[in-house]
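Sample 3 of the quickstart, ligand FE2/S2 (inorganic) cluster:
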Amino acid sequence: MKHPLAERFDGAAEILTEIDARIPDTRDYTTETRATIDAYHPKRLLLRVAAIIDETATTKTFRLKNHTDDALPPFSAGQYVNVFTDSTSRPYAISSSPTTLGHYDLTVRRVPGGRISNMLIDTLRIGHLLTTTGPMGTFHHNPLFHGDRVVFLAGGSGVAPAMSMIREIVELGLERSFHLIYGSRDAADIIFRTELDSRIAEHPGITVDHVIAEPTPQWTGRTGFLTADTIQDLTGPLDGRMVYVCGPQALYPYAVEQLTALGQPRKRIRFEANGAPSDPTAQPHWPASADPAAEVTVTVGDTSFRTRSGRPLLDALEDNGIRPEAACRSGECSLCRVRIVKGEVHTASESRLRLSDNQFGYTHSCVAYPITDVEIDIHSSPSIPRAIRRA
Ligand SMILES: Cc1cc2nc3c(=O)[nH]c(=O)nc-3n(C[C@H](O)[C@H](O)[C@H](O)COP(=O)(O)OP(=O)(O)OC[C@H]3O[C@@H](n4cnc5c(N)ncnc54)[C@H](O)[C@@H]3O)c2cc1C
Ligand code: FES
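Result:
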C-alpha cells in the first residue's frame, strides 16, 4: 500500500514501482553478520608476546601480536584491552598507533604491591600467550563532539592512551592541536620521553610539557603538580578546548578542582581512572558508620563467603572463584553489573550507573563495596528493593 506522503515527492511513483518489482531477499544473514561483528568486536583475543621494551626502571611495553599472525581488530586511540590472568583481569590502554594493526602495545607500570602489574613485568616473556578482550572503552577522540583542540593531562602510566593519540595524529598528519601536560614523580619516571620529545618536531600541533613532582637539581623544566597555575601558564586560556585527564584515581578529583578553578566546564573534561578508588572511605557518601575492615557475608546463589567491606565486590567474587564478566574495573563499562537482592553496598561515585539501575537495585561490582551482609544475583532479573547507596 502506498503511503499518501510518498506521492508528494517527485519520482515517487517510479521508486514505488521499483520496490514492488524487487524479489524479496530471504537469505539468512545471521552467520555472516555474526562473523563480521566478531572480526571487529571480538569478545576474546589470544595474543602472543612478540617483544618486550624496557621503558623506565618500573615500566615495560609488551608488544602483542595475534597468535594467528593475522591483523588485529581496529581500535580508536585511547581504547584499552582487558588482560585475563591469574583468575582475575586488568585493563591496559593500547599505547601503539591505531594505524598499525600488526600489533598492540601495552605499557605496564609497576604498582607497588600490585598483584598483576608486578606479575606481568616479572614473569611475562617473549612467546607467552595472553587472553584479552577486544579493544574497548569510550575514552577516545571524536572530532565532531570534542573539536580539534585538545589538552591532555596525564599522570604516570596515564600517558599510554596519549601516546597512541599522538602517534596517530603525527602518522596521519591530522589537523589537530594536542597539548600533553605530563606529570611524573621524577625525570627517570617519564615514560616515552625520547619519542614524545621527538614527535613535537614532526607535527606543528603537538606540544609536550613535563612536570616533575620531585626533581633532582639537574632538572631544569617545570616542577610541582598539575595545578591550575601550571596548567594556565602552559596552555593559556583553555577557551573551550576539550581536556582529557588520565592517571591514578586520585588525579581525577584533583584535576577537576584545578580545571574548575580555571573556569573549564565539567562537560569539557573527559576522564579515565586507572582502577577502583584505593580508599572508598574518602568519598563523601561513604557512610560514617561503615568500617572498611569489618567482615561481612556475601551470598551468591547457594555459595556464601566472608570478605571485608573495603574490598570491591568484583575482587571478592573472584577471590572465591566466581567470575562475572568484567573489563574496565573502574565503573565505566557496566559488564560487571550485578543485582543486590538483600543488604547494602556503597557504590563509588565514578560508577556510570543508569537511573534505572538505582531504581532496580543494580550496581557495578568493580566499584561497589558491601557495607552490610549482602545477597547478590549475578545473572540479574528486574524488580528488587532499592538497596544501593550512591551520591
Ligand atoms: C581503562 C584503564 C586503562 C588502564 N591502562 C593502564 C596502562 O596503560 N598502564 C598501566 O600500567 N596501568 C593501566 N591501568 C591500571 C591497571 O589496570 C591496573 O589497575 C594496575 O596495573 C594495577 O594493577 P595491580 O594488579 O598491579 O594492582 P592491584 O593489586 O589491583 O592494586 C594494588 C593497590 O594499588 C592501587 N593502584 C592500582 N592501580 C594503581 C595505579 N595505576 N597507580 C597507583 N595506585 C594504583 C590499588 O588501588 C590498590 O590499592 C588502567 C586501568 C584502567 C581502568
Ligand atoms: S568492569 Fe566495567 S563497570 Fe565494572
